[in-house]
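Example record

The entry below shows one chain as it appears in the dataset: sequence first, then structure tokens.
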Amino acid sequence: MKKEETPKQRQQALILFSGGLDSLLVAKIMKSLGFKITALIFQSCFFNPKIALNMASKYNLKTITKNISKEQLKIVKCPRFGYGKNINPCLDCRLLMLKIAKNIAKKNKFSMLVTGEVLGQRPMSQNRKAFALIEKESKLENKILRPLSGKLLPKTIYEKNGLIDRHKLYAISGKSRQEQFRLLKKYQITEYPTPSGGCLLTDPEFSHRLKIMLQKNPNCKINDIKLLKQGRLFWNKKNLIVIGRDEEDNKQLEKTYKKTTDILMELVEYPSPLMLIRNFGDRKLINNELKEIGKMLIRYCSKTKGASNLKVRVRRPTKEYIISIVFANPPYLPAGR
């Protein structure tokens, strides 16, 4: 005879899941308390869900994946609560995720929302004031369970109604993860990703690129953001120039290439990176300008040393043709980032 489920086992918990150590621990904690778990995994042009999906698969978690690229890009352009150290609007992003999670929970009749947040772990988004602000703005006051720091925080509605025993929550705080490492063995977590800055908005180099993009083209779209991740970047007035560093970059530039507006350039007679030009201005580039820009491409073509007249294939939106670039001294420089 099939064992009848207890009322608690019939309860469904929706966990905001990054795949990192904290969210893995929370999933294990909630399972150990008898809840059915679904991992909500977010995807964006600023972070990849691959790690979270891999970890969810390894630990047999049911998943829901939500792409928030458009909504997040709007927030990045004009955050209500400002940026962190780089160009990361952590409070606004967290609020966005919780609002989406709230709607998903309501639609799918989940009993509770759970996160792996740890009090004091992140200066901007994981402190008492931030928790209270986010809960108020999302209309989720006392409705977000944070099991790792639960004993240090106000009681949630789930504790008040007896769905969760507060004594089985934890009192972890701060940036040290010693307590989390202690819990690894208890909850039989044998594999987890190393801590890393998964969100590009916290990366100084990418943030610098994005700031320039927002200055040059405040109305940039997701396809424009993709270019910031795909090679060596240069600006010529309002023209973004991207030169592939390797074969993978070249493949990605081909995929990102907008046939209606972009220009692609590559050498005809020598191995060559791919160069993509995206014009954010209101004037088309003429061939003389392309010849000057093309010299940048040749800088990264080592096989051209000694040549003084090179043929470059140009792919415009309406036609494809060859131009010749002449120079007295080949401008080749050793390839780098």
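Notes for this example: Residues 12-186 form a domain with the Rossmann fold fold (CATH 3.40.50.620). The longest strand covers residues 36-43.
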